[in-house]
Amino acid sequence: MNPLFHSTSETTVLPLAAVIVVFLITWAVSFNSFDVQEKARNILITTAPKAKCGLSRVCPPDHFAFYIVSGAANVVGPKICFEGKIIMSTVKNNVGSGLNIVVVNEKLGDVETIAYLNMKIGNADDILAYLKNIYPGMIVLVASFDDVTAKMTDEMREVFVGMGSTLITSVKRRDNWVFAGRAGRDNKSLFEKQAANDESTNVYGDWPEAVELSGCYPRNLTDGKVS
């Protein structure tokens, strides 16, 4: 065998084999790296917190997400969403004319009670008793539907003032009103809206436009201050 030919063959084959090995190693590393990145991306997509109740942002861990919309005239019922769940709505068939109320535990976020208080034909004493029996500290979400004033008394209004409402004293016949407050704290609530019944501006004939309210409500109070 010609030594020169043998030598030339070895110097050609060995680098080719090395290139193949390097290629395979590089491909394996790249493939595994891509696989790891893809898994990490999927984990991030899966575990990334999502905004609740249609909010544009995610609430801080010590806050609850909520969304409230009043009824529209006496036709479309109100809706109350809390922490991503629709609690009251026409679809759920648990709303009615008057005050629609969701009471939530301020620490755990558990829904304690839901109720609609018929402010046209309901018993005023029973309505007042229900409002006064809401345990101090509970978060209270309220949406009006149709009219809330026929059975409304000054004492009932004072109960809502004690929850932080500043508008309830001015709510008139067929006004729309939404509110989120805390029972028995007397701190002014930042979450409240009212649409006045005014013939010149009403959207639905004898009723004003529906009003919406959403935000992040602080989880609990400690010594009268938000924790």
Secondary structure class reads alpha+beta
Describe the main β-sheet briefly: 5 strands, antiparallel
Give the number of helices.
Answer: 3
Strand order of the largest sheet: 5-4-6-7-8
Helix fraction by DSSP (H/I, runs of at least 4): 25-40%
Radius of gyration: 31 Å
| Strand content range | 25-35%
Q: How far from one another are the termini?
A: 90 Å
> What's the SSE pattern?
HEEEEEHEHEEEEE
* Form type: globular
The mean pLDDT is: 84
Report the strand count.
11
Low-confidence stretches: 1-14, 223-227
Quickly describe the structure.
Helix content is 28%, strand content 26%.
Account of the protein in words:
- With 227 residues, this protein is α+β, with helices and mostly antiparallel strands.
- It has three helices and eleven strands.
- The longest helix is centred in the N-terminal third of the chain and has 45 residues, at 3-47.
Summarize the helices and strands and which ones pair or pack.
Blueprint: H1 3-47, E1 63-69, E2 79-82, E3 85-88, E4 98-104, E5 111-117, H2 124-132, E6 139-145, H3 154-162, E7 176-182, E8 191-195, E9 212-218, E10 221-222, E11 225-226
Antiparallel strand pairs: 1-2, 1-9, 2-3, 4-5, 4-6, 6-7, 7-8, 10-11
